[in-house]
Amino acid sequence: MKKGLIMEGGAMRGMFTAGVIDVMMEHEIVYDGAIGVSAGAVFGCNYKSGQPGRVIRYNVAYCKNPHYAGLRTLVKTGDIFGEQFCYHDVPDRLDPFDYEAYRKNPMEFHIAATDVQTGAAVYRRVDACDKEGLQWLRASASMPLVSNIIKIGDYELLDGGIADAVPVEYFAGIGYDRNVAVLTRPADYRKQRYQAMPLVQARLRRYPKMVEAMAGRHERYNAQIEGIAAQERAGTLFVIRPPKAIDVSPVERRREKLLAAYRMGRMEMERRLPALLEYLQ
């Protein structure tokens, strides 16, 4: 049996996921592998480095810093989340990421990104958060319209949630057969067609497959959620999701909102902990 952890994205809705995984780490729950998409990747990597509390700590500390996220960094750099601050200043100096613990932990960590040339998902196992590894994490979390396209080798990449928001099927396909999915939307949520498609068509006109992928994103996502619900009913997938909509904006600057989302994740995981332990055993 290979136990896998699958973490959906959702920008600052990822504070819910941070609360969930902190409780898991505090109870020393071990997975053979994990896969994160977008915020699920850049926050979820702290599971492999064994650093509970780090995600909420640095987000609360720096959410108002203009170098972290916001219109200023978008105008200056093309990225709404500042690359230098988020991927260098914070993990290297301000709230150090344990690169060595990440590298030594045998748990596999995978990410999903979207290839803008094909509109298809690209999956990558990230064994070390070196220069290239960090680029893969950043690519997974680079939201369209407010992020630059990330180039890694022959790939041109954006947010993994476009092509595969909750890669349950992918993880099962590579051998993980006892999986836990952490979602950031409540059970009744269904995605609507992206309202900014005219902007997408203008901004990504060189990438027609990507435009097509974004136009059909809501249909793929809703089908995934239906499939996940069916697996949950059958007992073949354990799902943790927020009991209600998470009240945060994608670039949330209010500390109390971030803390509320994080506490919701903790409370839901603590409530579901006995059932999770039974499922994993």
List low-pLDDT spans: none
Mean pLDDT: 97
Q: Given the C-alpha coordinates, what overall shape results?
A: globular
Evaluate the radius of gyration: 17 Å
State the helix count: 12
Tell me the β content. 5-15%
Structural class: alpha/beta
Q: How far apart, in Å, are the first and last alpha carbons?
A: 10 Å
Query: Main beta sheet: strand number and arrangement?
Result: 8 strands, mixed
Helix content: 40-55%
Q: Give the SSE string.
A: EHEHHHHHEEHEEHEHHHEH
DSSP, total strands: 8
Would you give an account of this structure?
The chain is of the alpha/beta class and 281 residues long. Helices cover 47% and strands 14% of the residues. The chain has 12 helices and 8 strands. The protein has helices spanning 14-26, 39-49, 54-62, 71-77, 83-94, 99-104, 131-140, 168-173, 197-203, 208-215, 217-234, 255-280; strands at residues 3-7, 33-37, 108-115, 121-125, 150-152, 155-159, 178-182, 237-240. Strands 1, 2, 3, 4, 5, 6, 7 and 8 form an 8-stranded mixed β-sheet that branches. Helix 1 (14-26) runs parallel beside helix 2. The mean pLDDT is 97.
In brief, what are we looking at here?
The protein is an alpha/beta fold.
Structural features:
12 helices; 281 residues; alpha/beta; 8 strands; single chain; 8-stranded mixed sheet
Q: Topology, pairings included?
A:
Blueprint: E1 3-7, H1 14-26, E2 33-37, H2 39-49, H3 54-62, H4 71-77, H5 83-94, H6 99-104, E3 108-115, E4 121-125, H7 131-140, E5 150-152, E6 155-159, H8 168-173, E7 178-182, H9 197-203, H10 208-215, H11 217-234, E8 237-240, H12 255-280
Parallel strand pairs: 1-2, 1-7, 2-3, 7-8
Antiparallel strand pairs: 3-4, 3-6, 5-6
Helix pairs in contact: 1-2, 1-12, 3-12
